[in-house]
Amino acid sequence: MQPLKIYNTLSREKEVFTPINAPHVGLYVCGPTVYNFVHLGNLRTFTSFDILHRYLKFIGYQVRYVRNITDVGHLVGDGDEGEDKIGKMAKLEKLEPMEIVQRYTNDFHDVLTQFNLLPPSIEPTATGHIVEQIETTKILLDKGLAYESNGSIYFDIETYNKQGGDYGHLSGRVLDDLLTETRDLDGVGEKRSPLDFALWKKASPEHIMRWPSPWGDGFPGWHLECTCMSHKYLGDTFDIHGGGMDLKFPHHECEIAQAKAAHGRAPVRYWMHTNMLTVNGQKMSKSLGNSFLPSELIAGDHPLLEQAYSPMTVRFFMLQSQYRSTLDFSNEALKAAQKGYKRIANGLRIIKGMEFEGEAMAIDEAQVGEIDAAIQGCYDGMNDDLNTAVTISHLFTLLKKINQLHTGQLAFGQLGKDVFDRLKSNYINFLEQVLGLREEFPANQEALIKGMLGLYATFKEKREYNKVDEIRASFKAMGLLVKDMKTRIDWAYEE
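The chain above was modelled as a monomer; its predicted structure follows.
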């Protein structure tokens, strides 16, 4: 079997994945800033790393997956000046900042549960690691790689690069070019260079979220929190750091600089980044009116949507595209994904209830060869930088064999029990454990119950009591009871 290869943004090529301390793997993914509802771009990124998390576990690794919650320090505009995003929302809503944090953290968790993402091993918050951020700032000041200016502390990029740093390498940016681009910008203010970034910011009188520090009341810089939390839980150097491609610069670039400067070594072996979303070929944005939330997709409640799409339809749609490629949302593509998902889910339902049966006969080597090639293809797709699209195409080959067994076009004996067992286990495991797809049952359970009660009444009137008893047994299996009342037939939960 081919080894797992992942595209490393740092080297700009696919590399064989070799953990630092196998079978243990350290994985850190930048989580959301919880000041608003989670959007589809977030969902795609977290789904992509859910697949990585799942597959690493599937092939035998023990994964410590750390995904943070940013609940302070991320300023409007992503720079070093302006209001805290959470503080601003708290003022607008007239709530405490931690009420905003709790509301949107709950939403984030609810959405990820709907779309069947596994929880991380650790979900640290920036506010829970203020001590570590102050200590790291002290280390950088002591090393001469940071400086104080009017109560704020900034990282000194020029000094860092003179001492052998490589700020700009991850994103492919040249320091001189960056300086040229920013030289004429206003607002450098307290900084020695416009590229320097805040480690700790002095809190203005109106700033709500603040903590005491050796330099006065303030709050941590956005970039510093991820460096401190990943270092605390994964060590000086860990295996994989992930996030959306919009975080490469400056966020991840700054993380690397801080960690190298503080701890003397590169913090991460493999950097992974997901690509952006488009809608009908246009970049997704609120200003264009083509941005929608996961909840709007599920409800079909948006002018651009022709219908509602279930969570597993959307997940299947996302997995039909490799995580580094642009993903374009359209009604046509989502409808096609809906058909594809239902086909593959029907196969899941069938194979779960299927057992090997039939008489021994000559093995059909061609059929066996196709099944084994498709199973191998599922692994090869995942091992080629998590190419879920390739894996799904091979699962459809296995689905064809399942349907042929189901309809009798293919005899169980033509495969033999070992091959059938391989077909069954791999189809189920790749769909459920690796791709995180599951069967979705009808939401209109009430309508189904009413229909069954209607049949119950008909059978009872015709005195077909064997069928009446079958329906009663079906209800009981669901934890329900049929209630024969004087004027009607009703149902209740079994107490």
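The first strand starts at residue 5 and ends at 8.
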